[in-house]
Amino acid sequence: MGTFTWASGARYHGEWKDDKRNGSGTYYWLDGRKYEGKWRNGDYHGWGVYSWPDGRRYEVPVMRGEWKEDKKNGKGVFMWANGDRYEGEWKDDKPNGRGVKRWAKGDRYEGEWKDGKQSGRGKLVHPDGRSEDGSWENDLPHGGTCLL
């Protein structure tokens, strides 16, 4: 266990192995951001929380989930500052696999994702109760999608 402060003022407090962040620890940026969680060979790895300070308007205020080599990988929850939220599987920082995205305006998509886009089987439910069920490709209905 130890603390290191870089010339930039950023600092890390946590476990180390072979002079690299390894195990549990917290990295603090000067602007108030921080990552608290697991590390391997100096990179985010496993479960952790990446957060921004309250009151700031960033695209993404919170990520909870699995990280691998500084990217979201595995299962996690991502919340945007505008209230949108995605919960599901990630690969290389993008929704990939099964997941649910809820938009702040009330729409909800449950289904398959590929490279950050709705692709495969899924269902989009609108706030007024209408839904679109079927196949999706690059965020658009594709083929046999039914409006219900």
Explain what you see.
Keywords: Repeat. It comes from Acanthamoeba castellanii (strain ATCC 30010 / Neff). This is MORN repeatcontaining protein. InterPro entries: MORN. Residues 111-148 are annotated as: Disordered. The protein is mostly beta strands. The chain folds into two domains: 1-64, no CATH class; 83-147, no CATH class. It has strands at residues 2-5, 11-17, 20-28, 34-40, 43-51, 62-68, 71-79, 85-91, 94-102, 108-114, 117-125, 131-137, 140-141, 146-147. Strands 1, 2, 3, 4, 5, 6, 7, 8, 9, 10, 11, 12, 13 and 14 form a 14-stranded antiparallel beta sheet that branches. The model is unreliable at 55-61 (pLDDT under 50).
**Molecular shape:** elongated
**SSE run:** EEEEEEEEEEEEEE
Average of the residue pLDDT scores: 86
Q: Unreliable stretches, pLDDT < 50, 5 or more residues?
A: 55-61
Which helices and strands, and how do they pair?
Layout: E1 2-5, E2 11-17, E3 20-28, E4 34-40, E5 43-51, E6 62-68, E7 71-79, E8 85-91, E9 94-102, E10 108-114, E11 117-125, E12 131-137, E13 140-141, E14 146-147
Antiparallel strand pairs: 1-2, 2-3, 3-4, 4-5, 5-6, 6-7, 7-8, 8-9, 9-10, 10-11, 11-12, 12-13, 12-14
